[in-house]
Amino acid sequence: MTGRLTQLGLFLSLALILSYVESLIPFSFGIPGIKLGLPNLAVVLLLYGGGGKSDVRVGGGRDALLVNMLRIVLSGFLFSGLYTSLYALAGALCSFAAMLLGKRNRRLSVVGVSVLGGVFHNIGQLAAAVAVTQTVYVGWYAPALIAAGTVTGAVLGTAAGALLPYLTKTTDGR
Question: In this structure, what CATH number is given to the domain that contains residue 37?
Fold first, then answer.
């Protein structure tokens, strides 16, 4: 149990560091909501098995969801605030549901699942924006946000695909 908590703590730390790094990057195209989504790398890695020794293994849907939700709460307190966390939470829940379904489909690669996550994160944020502003006019941002989610999801999925073989190796040679 201690090894499992340690590994989950490391993934949470990775996600928080990536959140902080993302907050430092001036990435704006004049459209609210476009971000790189760097913390999603930790979520995708966990969703696909995470890593660890053969006797202490983390990963899967529950662990990925736990780390993602904790990351949103903690990064909200540390970097952005409660209001921004509302949008992040809506996007993360929508994104996670899409990635989980995409992974279960088994026809999508890790890149495809990550693209789904990027696109549906933006759809979740748009839904939250519609609820908060009580207008559907924020939907005009949808094409740009979907394009950005596709590109960033593909980049992060490629990075996750490259890292996964190193994280899933066991210490006993299997």
Answer: 1.10.1760.20
